[in-house]
Amino acid sequence: MVRKLAGLVATLLATSFVIFAASYAAPGDPVTFLAGGKENLTPEHLAAIRAQYHLDDPFLVQYGRWLGDALTGDLGRSTQYHDQVADLMAARLPSTLGLVAYASVLFVVFGIALGVLAAVRGGRTDSAVVAGTTFATSVPAFVTATVLISLFGVQLGWFPVMGGGSLWHLTLPAVTLALGALAIISRVTRQSMIEQRELDHVSVARAGGLSERLIVVRHVFRGALGPIVTMCGLVTAGMLAGTVTVETAFGLNGIGSLLVNAINTHDFPVTQAVLLLMVTAYIAVTTAVELLHPLIDPRVRSRA
């Protein structure tokens, strides 16, 4: 446990360093962006900006100050919105979390269902599921968003296509975000169940006269649950970054669209804070899945 916590802290430190360094390695002088893009500023004004943001300090000193402030909840002030970054993120985070939660429910329910159906039925059903999920994986999110907006939003008028935070507004964005993840989960479920069906204890249960339905539920699906839960956690952890494209396409005011605007306007404090949040969330979720896996699959606990 101590080793895992030390590795987690080291990963977060390394990631935060890369994020801070990448932001200041962007083309252009940070002073120009911090000054609001104004040109022909006096040397005195430029010097005041450098002093205000400690830009004349050594790089490691700047990084240490930024990291220390971030640990206390001070993420700086946005150069575009002229507001505290923490307040901006707090206002937009519920929309993004709602979208991720909605999409997670969709891909978990339908992904596992399709995977079970393909593994149990086999034949043409299996081929159809594999072909469908392969196609879903190959379609970029922005293409899916465009098709859904055009068909269900504009032509049929069933769903709103821009803005809003209600469940109805989030349906098309959630479907877009969940489609690729659904394909991954269905494949993992299918493969895990096929592997479980070939194990000896399943053959013994079948030879003992147990019904096929009970065999699937008690032995096959239960044995395949470990890899399925692990992959669901990993996919959910990566979804926060996937909201960038979806929120931009549907005009949602979430963390993803905030990141896009910050990058376009060189709003370094917002860019750094959002990236740090995404990486921290990913590491936290993957660590939780790793700790949960032995509780789901006793075989992992026995090998540890």
Automatic annotation (TrEMBL):
<dbReference type="Pfam" id="PF00528">
    <property type="entry name" value="BPD_transp_1"/>
</dbReference>
<feature type="transmembrane region" description="Helical">
    <location>
        <begin position="270"/>
        <end position="293"/>
    </location>
</feature>
<feature type="transmembrane region" description="Helical">
    <location>
        <begin position="127"/>
        <end position="154"/>
    </location>
</feature>
<feature type="domain" description="ABC transmembrane type-1">
    <location>
        <begin position="93"/>
        <end position="289"/>
    </location>
</feature>
<dbReference type="InterPro" id="IPR000515">
    <property type="entry name" value="MetI-like"/>
</dbReference>
<keyword id="KW-0813">Transport</keyword>
<feature type="transmembrane region" description="Helical">
    <location>
        <begin position="99"/>
        <end position="120"/>
    </location>
</feature>
<feature type="transmembrane region" description="Helical">
    <location>
        <begin position="166"/>
        <end position="185"/>
    </location>
</feature>
<dbReference type="Pfam" id="PF19300">
    <property type="entry name" value="BPD_transp_1_N"/>
</dbReference>
<dbReference type="InterPro" id="IPR035906">
    <property type="entry name" value="MetI-like_sf"/>
</dbReference>
<feature type="transmembrane region" description="Helical">
    <location>
        <begin position="228"/>
        <end position="250"/>
    </location>
</feature>
<dbReference type="InterPro" id="IPR045621">
    <property type="entry name" value="BPD_transp_1_N"/>
</dbReference>
<keyword id="KW-0732">Signal</keyword>
<comment type="similarity">
    <text>Belongs to the binding-protein-dependent transport system permease family.</text>
</comment>
<feature type="signal peptide">
    <location>
        <begin position="1"/>
        <end position="21"/>
    </location>
</feature>
<keyword id="KW-0812">Transmembrane</keyword>
<keyword id="KW-1003">Cell membrane</keyword>
<protein>
    <submittedName>
        <fullName>ABC transporter permease</fullName>
    </submittedName>
</protein>
<keyword id="KW-1133">Transmembrane helix</keyword>
<keyword id="KW-0472">Membrane</keyword>
